[in-house]
Amino acid sequence: MRPVNLRAARRHQAQLRLPPRRATRRSAPALMAATLALLTLATPWLLPAAEMFASRAQATLGLVVEEVRIDGARRLDEAAIRTALAIEPGTAMLGLDLDAARNRLEDLAWVDHAVIRRLLTGTLEIHLTEHQALALWLAPDGVALLSENGETVPVAQHEVPRDLPLVTGAGAAAAAEEVAQILVLADRLDLSLDRLERLGERRWRLVLDSQQRVELPAEDVDRALRRLERFLAKEELLERAVAVVDLRLDDRIVVSPLPLLRQEAQG
To answer: What digits encode the pLDDT tens for the residues 46-74?
Structure first.
């Protein structure tokens, strides 16, 4: 029986277990190339499937816009609001720029303030605060509502509100701030105002229900209104037979009486 060389046997076993180093180095690039080729071929099918899965998952979790609710719009058309909002159903909730959307809404006429809220139900909630309607303006091209900031909204004849003061004459919208001042004073003095007339796009005339007139100057309307308030506090002028109170002169208030025939008819 031949003796066994243990060292030689162990070396032989070790050589059988270890793969050749050259073979490993050559097979790694081939494996990577095959993997890249497989991914390249599968990409056109994997991406749509992944996008569809992600879209369904976001919709289930309320992460996409499914509904847009608008509250507080009385003067504005809803289609104009949605156009300015520029957010369609299916848009990802987390990617929305709410500040930019709010700014677009607040750029609309009549919108004073806008609030946008994201709800977990996939609902986008829009709450609008509009400028208040100041008066009803009989404009040269039709009837319009006049806001406190000078914006106008045309209204149909059958939609005309009856509780608003009446303003006439071209250029009234550009002087909306003066309209507001005059209306505040008229309310404080309990004047029954029939209408407010804009004359020559320069100055105002107040016409009372009694058809008595108050003529205001073209400039410094606020000062003229304060003069009128002080004057009426001392003199119950409008309770007398007066046709016109003229405030256009700085140093005096000119009062014109009613014609004699009209006084007799009233007396």
So the answer is: 455 444 444 444 444 447 888 899 999 88
Nearest-CA neighbor of 245 among 217, 218, 264, 267?
217
Residue 157, C-beta contacts closer than 8 angstroms, at least 6 positions apart:
143
Residue listed under structure tokens 């250029």: 171
Answer whether CATH 3.20.20.70 is correct for domain 133-266: no
**What is the identity of the amino acid at 172?**
A
Tokens at 42, concatenated:
């599968």
Residues 180, 162 contacting (CB under 8 angstroms): no
Residue 261 structure tokens: 């025939």
Q: Which residue has the tokens 């986008």?
A: 124
Question: Could you give the CA distance from residue 176 to residue 184 in angstroms, rounded to a whole number?
Answer: 12
Tokens (6 digits) for 219: 């400039």
| AA identity, residue 88 | E
Closest by Cα among 217, 224, 213, 188 to 203: 217
The number of beta carbons lying within 10 Å of the beta carbon of residue 127 is 14
Please list, in sequence order, all residues whose beta carbon lies within 8 angstroms of the beta carbon of residue 108, skipping any fewer than 6 positions away: 76, 80, 81, 84
Domains 67-130 and 133-266 share a fold: no
The model carries a pTM of 0.58
The domain 67-130 is classified under which CATH number: 3.30.950.10, 3.40.50.2000, 3.20.20.10, 3.10.20.310? 3.10.20.310
